[in-house]
Amino acid sequence: MSGLREKQKADRRRRILEAARKLFAKAGPDATTIEAIADAAGVSGVTVHNYYGTKSGVLLALVAESDRELLEKMARELPGQSDDVIDLARRFAAIIRDHAITFLDKEIWRQVFAASIAEANSRFGKSYHSLDHQLALVLVREIEVLQARDAVSPDVSAYDLGKAIFSLQNMRFVNFISFDEMTDVESDAAFLRDLRSIFGALPPDRR
Amino acid sequence: MSGLREKQKADRRRRILEAARKLFAKAGPDATTIEAIADAAGVSGVTVHNYYGTKSGVLLALVAESDRELLEKMARELPGQSDDVIDLARRFAAIIRDHAITFLDKEIWRQVFAASIAEANSRFGKSYHSLDHQLALVLVREIEVLQARDAVSPDVSAYDLGKAIFSLQNMRFVNFISFDEMTDVESDAAFLRDLRSIFGALPPDRR
DNA sequence: GAAAAATTTTTTAGGCAATAAAAAATTTTT
DNA sequence: AAAAATTTTTTATTGCCTAAAAAATTTTTC
């Protein structure tokens, strides 16, 4: 049996990602060639393709790493801060926006998001979605807390509600990164309108 | 002054789109080269690029055309069918899903959606978004009808609510096209869970 | 209505992503 | 240590996309 081969593979993966991180940060993904990443990582260009499929695949893998940080930050900063679901949702969205914009600029996020949809079925598309799911679960847990405090109806599924709010937040995020001139304050205000209108939609006798 | 030049341009645009439609339908966008489209349209490959930017741009322009049909269909089939906002939202989503899946398969829709985000600031990315907006407005108008019938609270903005529901629907649509095995029945059920949880979220004393 | 000017398309050339297949190198097994 | 299996590299090709020069065509001017 072995071990060396696996270790070398893990090593190459790490080196490729490390090289890509540096080069993307310096010149952006568009100006960075696969060949340059390969050179810096000490492998051939074809090997980069073998490991990550496409250049977007490399980018997605990089974002997946940063998302793990985001997940920790979320689990640290979200709980116990909100008294109602609207405030909770806004904090959730703000943490994601802040983290995203600190990490990469909007143009690159557009590419990331596009890749996550186009490559939804690839290995890294899936890991991206899985992290989204885990983020949503942090929200779900907080909703359960609010339910225990009677700030959210006990009749709804916290899981369903968390996923739905995550969806709304996600579309707002797409909207935010789609327009270079949109500020986080504007995005927050728009999200607030979403939440207010949707939570206040049904008249009391219809619920 | 002129006219001939403009007419020839419009003509080339039309011919390129017509050629692309046929070739995409026959072999799919991946297997269709820009050069093949250009040949069929009687122009050079560079001209296709000059007119539509990228192959995704051509695809987006084609989808924008079909979306105009969808808009008509929506304006024809949505109004006056629903007594409550959840039913309205589900019908809205069903019409979009049906139209989409009749027109193109999921793999291609993933490319379209990815392109609409990646090229959000291009000419055709914008026209795509504009049609989304018009679709949402059909929904807004129906919400206003429901408000007049006291099925939706008079306190919320019909516009904001329409946009928010559209967002939710849009994420469900992305989810639907992201997984080849997901049926429209499953997607509808998931959307229903979104709507029920979100509309029922707040306890009566919190509204 | 012909020459000049302006605009648009085509040709030409090149960079790069992505894929496939053969060749070479390296690890694992016997 | 040789054979087998696996993985990377080399090599070659296709196609998207861009830029710049050349050619063609329309519009304007006289």
TrEMBL record, chains A, B:
Residues 33-52 bind DNA. Keywords: DNA-binding, Transcription, Transcription regulation. Residues 10-70 form the HTH tetR-type domain. Pfam families: TetR_N (PF00440). Gene3D superfamilies: Tetracycline Repressor, domain 2. It comes from Thioclava marina. This is HTH tetR-type domain-containing protein.
